[in-house]
Amino acid sequence: MKSEGGFLQGWFANGIEGRHVLMGLIVFFGVMLAANSLLVYYALDTFSGGDRPDPYRSGLNYNETIEAGKRQAALGWQTEMAYDDSQGRLTLSVLDEAQVPVTNLALDAKVSRPATDREDRAVDFVEVSPGVYATDVALAPGTWIVSLASRAGAEGEASYRLKRRCSSLTGHDRPRASGGSRRAGAGRLAKYSCSGRR
């Protein structure tokens, strides 16, 4: 303690001088620079929050996006999506306004997490029966976003876009059986229900 006090007395023997101010500024700006560098690193290295690769250009084409939405609504297509955990299969059924299956669609699809892009992956849908398209993909428990665009043929223009949120239902989410015990299979992934645009 005595040596420390002697050091401080020697350092400030003549009061606050220019070197003290200089050292204070160096420490202050050094800490600020280190904190800002850390924040910039995490901002660039983690999920940006955007769901489109080029939101600026998408905003410039906003009117075209509105018109495309109107054309899509005029189709009157009805879609239903489900995930079968036992088979690891994601299925999409598409019916037109007259309840007739919509066939021969080429689908560009992607599954992703809503809060990160580290698990994004493209999936290939194949028509397994008239108007029913499926892809085999292993989805871990939690919430997933399924985004897809349908095309009339492999080279056709996107005519229908769909975005669905799939939320897993685990055994812990199921109602209790009589007597307070949980149903068989508690803790296992039960099924995914996919609904809504997001």
UniProtKB/TrEMBL annotation:
Protein name as annotated: Nitrogen fixation protein FixH
InterPro entries according to UniProt: FixH (IPR008620)
Pfam families xref list: FixH
Transmembrane segments: 21-44
Keywords assigned by UniProt, alphabetized: Membrane, Transmembrane, Transmembrane helix
Chain intervals for the UniProt region annotation (Disordered): 169-198
Gene source species: Methyloceanibacter superfactus
Compositional bias annotation for Low complexity: 177-190
